[in-house]
Amino acid sequence: MNIHEYQAKNILKQYGVQVQEGIVIDKLEQTKDAAKRLQEETGTNFFVVKAQIHAGGRGKGSVKETGSKGVVVSKLDSVEEKVKNILGGTLETIQTGAAGKKVNKVLIAQDVYYPSPDDPNIKEYYLSITLDRATGSNVIIASTEGGVEIEEVAEHNPSAIIKEWIDPAIGLQPFQARKVAFALGLEGKALKEMVKFINALYKAYMGMDASMFEINPVLKTSDDKILAVDAKVNLDDNALYRQSELAELRDISEEDELEVEASKSGLNYIKLDGNVGCMVNGAGLAMATMDIIKLSGGEPANFLDVGGGANAQTVEAGFRIILKDPNVKAILINIFGGIVRCDRVANGVVEAYKNIGDIDVPIIVRLQGTNAEEGAKIIEESGLKVKSAILLKDAADKVKEVLS
């Protein structure tokens, strides 16, 4: 689960991470009071207006309606105009694609690039923490090239990337935080502040059951403070049952509508950009099914796992979600009857088809496993426009046929 920058910063502060202070607003008329309050609390004379959406590249992105960037600097007398150009608009970034995302909130933050952004004592760093599945360890990734997408750094200057693996059994050791800070070229007060920052950040990462932290940039101010200027936090969905307060931070308006609808029906659904919808039970079978679709000349339009207990209700919910995607030109249902019986799934398909009504998208159903023959017979005798397949190759051929 992703959360907004302002939410992440509020939580990080509770763990002792120093952050760029700010106040979030969702109405234009709140701007002046928020800016004045922030000025009184921090002494700042300049403000940074930051669009709050679940996407990176906001500073380089553009608001479609006004042409404004998603992150802009302002004086007190013009902060309201800057907010007006962003709030309520559609921000398009490299991560949102052409559709963009509506900006429902903005963060008015203090300017921390004092006395001037050109001051040579100001430095930007990159710092993230995530799980390295290859080693089964958490890893701190750091770089002296902050403010730049880490993918670009990895491609053009891989030697600038620092990695420190942490044994989850013993946690972050003091020497490891110092090692990263030294590798970033810091010394004196800035070195000590960075060590404190890394320790607090790792404590927050573990305490929040996060799957990824990315702070880009981490700023060394002209007076050697270390601050999180931005914060991207992804929480482990599987741990939300014990993070009830964090679960309440979920912003459904930032998520794909079909994925939200699927989660309400207990379906695992991820929207993709293809033309063949797929409904499968089991993640491994779903991956194989998507490969089959590509080999047949199509492109998967989604990942949809109905789980081991598929029934008429879940199948119907899956159908309705897939059919809401206008790009879908065919649907492939691929079910292995292990826990669930194939005849039960077949009855669910027939019942769902009848409940939904006129479906003008070709449907291919492949059933294998428990009661597969009975299931195929139900499909074939239903009188519906549904094609039955037995082998994966048969399913692939039928997908190719309906797409040609």
Q: What portion of residues is helical? A: 25-40%
Q: What gyration radius follows from the Cα positions, in whole Å? A: 26 Å
> By CATH's scheme, which homologous superfamily of the largest domain applies?
Succinyl-CoA synthetase domains
What is the 3D form?
elongated
Structural class: alpha+beta
Figure out the total of helices.
13
Q: What do the pLDDT scores average to?
A: 90
CATH fold call of the largest domain = Rossmann fold
Q: What is the distance, rounded to the nearest whole angstrom, between the alpha carbons of the first and last residues?
A: 39 Å
CATH architecture of the largest domain: 3-Layer(aba) Sandwich
Q: Tell me, what is the CATH class of the largest domain?
A: Alpha Beta
- Give start-end ranges of low-pLDDT stretches: none
Q: Characterize the main sheet.
A: 7 strands, antiparallel
Structurally, the number of domains stands at: 3
Question: Using DSSP, what is the number of strands?
Answer: 20
Please state roughly what percent of the residues sit in beta strands, choosing from under 5%, 5-15%, 15-25%, 25-35%, 35-45% or over 45%. Answer: 25-35%
